[in-house]
Write a structure and sequence with these properties.
CATH architecture: Up-down Bundle
Order of helices and strands: EEEEHHHHHHHHHHHHHHHHHEH
Helix content: 55-70%
Oligomer: single chain
CATH superfamily: Amino acid/polyamine transporter I
CATH topology: Amino acid/polyamine transporter I
CATH class: Mainly Alpha
Largest sheet: 3 strands, antiparallel
Number of strands: 5
Strand content: under 5%
Number of helices: 18
Distance between the termini: 30 Å
Radius of gyration: 22 Å
Length: about 500
């Protein structure tokens, strides 16, 4: 007797007692990637090298040598949020990601606003890291080799290359992400292990795992609060569900695995960097005018320190590519449902990618990146828009937590679990609320203080769009917003002609 995964809630098709491969019924490139591809989509969006190298120094100024312990707490908190998203992904696979989850579990208008905020976040997640990386490259090459490579040129190279690969399809994107992600992880681990092999003052010790070394509860609290921001991006595998084989099984796993892998990675590698610098001199680590990763790279690897810079370039490229995939799939899903202009849902015939969405992202990324880079400077632009990212992402996390409870309590009561569907959402929501509060109170200096204003203005515009659509009677999309895709069992012939990454 054969059963398939077409019914909501099933996790895989079976043939007798043997599981078989399923794929989504979609116009996108169905079943093109497997668990490794979906997993690396999330991992690279976190940005192992960029996320660690640029966060650990700031966190050391807050929590001192106890940064690894702070990251351990971050892992626990973020895992509670990932549980909510994974629970929804298991039953509502869609390229819409949060748009579909929130629309189905809470309401289409809430789903639209959540995606509207993502529309502010994801395109910026392409251009902002590229601008920042361009500034780092220009500064480091000039100070170390006397060679000037303009930040705007590096920025344009990254953005154009990223969106070209994105246009070529999910398979090429997945292969590039897998290669880049593995490379940057290995480089960061190698630098951290070098720190353990050649420790600074204080030697190898476990003081980093004693919360008492955080300079008091307030220091640890701040370290955890801002450490949460470093681990965002793991949700990036959700919008590739329609292009992932066995999406009801592989996407939830990718979401959870990415949080665990990146959490452990941040704990171990931050410890290795601090030990390599010298735990007795953590204050100088926090106040170093040069990125500590560069200092350690020069100390351990000599002239080969430039590998660290290459890891940052590599990481930035991967972040941008992963973000481009997320943005184009969410735009496509919203256009397919009718919440955005239908032209944004047009697919390239050969590569099955949302070609008009790619073009839109290219234009927006170039225009915004160049404007902000020249107007605010490459570093100020990064910190200001980084705060915008935080606000947009945390809104989506809270909506997913609420949606997790509502969906299982109202539609799947027989599956309702008090820990998975109530306790985890409460813990995650409370933690996120504190992150937002501590990020904005007291209000940071300019230009970072403009971030909440940008988000509020964008939110008001989104509400205005909803009002206009209602007044004009264009709300047919409400019926389509929360629909998940069905799956079908792959035949041996289909599998033979579909390599999976």
């Amino acid at each position: 007797m054969e059963t398939t995964a077409q019914t909501p809630g099933s996790t895989a098709a079976t043939l007798g007692d043997r599981p078989i491969v399923t794929a989504a019924d979609t116009q996108l490139q169905s079943g093109a990637i497997g668990l490794p591809g979906a997993l690396m989509q999330s991992i690279t969006c976190v940005g192992p090298a960029v996320g660690l190298f640029f966060s650990v120094q700031y966190l050391a100024s807050l929590s001192g040598v106890a940064v690894p312990f702070a990251f351990f707490v971050v892992l626990f908190i973020m895992l509670t949020v990932a549980v909510s998203v994974a629970q929804l992904a298991k039953h509502l696979p869609s390229a819409g990601g949060f748009f579909t989850y929130v629309s189905h579990a809470i309401g289409p208008r809430a789903g639209f606003i959540t995606s509207w905020l993502f529309a502010l976040y994801m395109p910026m997640a392409i251009c902002v890291p590229a601008v920042f990386m361009g500034g780092v490259v220009e500064t480091e090459l000039k100070s170390n080799y006397g060679f000037t490579f303009p930040w705007w040129l590096a920025f344009l190279i990254v953005v154009v290359s990223v969106l070209f690969i994105s246009y070529r399809g999910i398979k090429m994107s997945a292969r590039v992400l897998f290669t880049l992600g593995l490379l940057e992880i290995l480089i960061v681990i190698a630098l951290s292990v070098s720190g353990l092999v050649s420790p600074g003052a204080g030697g190898i010790n476990l003081s980093s795992f004693d919360p008492g070394n955080a300079g008091g509860f307030h220091g640890l609290y701040l370290g955890v609060t801002f450490g949460l921001l470093s681990l965002t991006g793991w949700e990036a595998s959700a919008p590739v569900a329609e292009e992932t084989e066995n999406p009801r099984r592989n996407v939830p796993r990718a979401l959870l695995y990415s949080v665990v892998i990146m959490g452990v990675f941040f704990v171990f590698c931050s410890w290795g960097l601090l030990v390599g610098w010298g735990t007795n001199h953590v204050s100088t680590f926090a106040t170093s005018t040069q990125l500590p990763a560069f200092v350690l790279g020069k100390e351990f690897w000599g002239g080969a320190w430039i590998i660290v810079l290459l890891a940052i370039i590599n990481s930035t490229f991967a972040i941008c590519l992963s973000s481009a995939t997320v943005a184009t799939r969410m735009i496509y899903a919203m256009a397919r449902a009718g919440a955005l202009p239908a032209r944004l849902g047009v697919l390239d015939r050969k590569h099955k990618t949302p070609v008009n969405a790619v073009v839109l992202l290219l234009l927006v990324s170039v225009a915004v990146g160049l404007f902000l880079g020249w107007r605010t400077g490459t570093q100020n632009e990064y910190f200001m828009m980084g705060t915008v990212f935080v606000l947009a992402t945390t809104w989506a996390y809270v909506m997913a937590n609420i949606g997790n409870f509502r969906y299982f309590y109202r539609e799947r009561r027989s599956e309702f679990n008090w820990f998975l569907h109530l306790v985890c959402p409460i813990i995650g929501t409370v933690a996120i609320a504190w992150v937002v509060y501590k990020s904005l109170v007291p209000l940071p200096a300019a230009p970072v203080k403009y971030a909440p204003i940008i988000v509020v203005v964008w939110l008001v515009l989104g509400l205005g769009v909803l009002v206009v659509m209602r007044l004009r009677g264009k709300e047919q999309w409400l019926l389509e917003a929360g629909k998940a895709v069905h799956e079908h069992a792959e035949t041996p012939a289909e599998l033979a002609h579909r390599p999976v990454i």
